[in-house]
Amino acid sequence: MTRTPIRVVLVDDVDDVRRLVRTALRFHGGFDVVGEASTGAQAIDLAGTLRPEVIVLDLGLPDIAGQEVLTQIREESPATQVVLLSGGEPTDRAWFEERTAGYLLKDAGVEHLVELLEHVGRRDEDVRSLDIPHDPIGSGLAREMVRETLAEWAMEGLLDEAELVVSELVTNAVTHGGSACRLELSHSSGALRIEVIDEGEGSPEPQPYDSSSEHGRGLVLVSAMSTSWGVESAPEGKKVWAVLALG
Question: What is the pLDDT of residue 247?
């Protein structure tokens, strides 16, 4: 099963440290470094804007003290997990440990940091899947799964958009892909990821609006309602995915 990449923001005033961690995460796979900051003010702004799964935070930033940076990050994005990466032992380490998901000294080695980030980033993630037959009833089964899953995840605010996106992607797979498909839903830090995997050939493309056409507009709607979407190859054929975010 394909898993949603863990979105990470790196915060350190040393460029080489950020580069080292970024390279290690890319080599390991399963991570997406969505932002970098060299100051506390930048870190706080990125936390509120991006709301990543994990922030790697250096305590020795030049503009704002460590406790204040952490406090404001937690206010901007409560669901984000913070992992501290420090060059030395702070006098108030217990205070930080109570308010973060992990603490590492920089001399511990980047491999230990990667392991910690994977554990922290995955612990709140849940994935649900449904095999959908090559049948017109597929969209109805998919919508039912979406309603039940979002109710369980307390994400009803995304229900209308999610039902429409799922319907379009499943219909595209069943009708145009000519095969059964699998629907996967996952969530993390207030974002819902929808994936539909099928064995059909070719990649779907959004079509220009045409009031006389009954087809070809589905992906235009998907693109409009999603924060991001895309098409990737998969062992079974192809995967079309979309991400919806709570406001």
Answer: 64
- Residues of the chain falling short of pLDDT 70: 1-3, 122-125, 177, 188-190, 201-218, 233-236, 247
Given the candidates 3.10.450.50, 3.30.300.20, 3.30.565.10, 3.20.20.70, the CATH classification of the domain at 126-245 is 3.30.565.10
- Each domain of the chain, given as residue ranges in start order, spans 6-122, 126-245
Q: How far apart are CA 61 and CA 110, in angstroms?
A: 20
- For residue 224, the model assigns a pLDDT of 83
Q: List residues bridging with 177 in a β-sheet.
A: none
Given a contact cutoff of 8 angstroms between Cβ atoms, the answer to whether 68 and 48 are in contact is no
Q: So what's the pLDDT on residue 187?
A: 79
Homologous superfamily in CATH for domain 6-122: Response regulator (3.40.50.2300)
List Cα–Cα distances, 107 to 99, 111, 229, in angstroms.
22, 11, 38
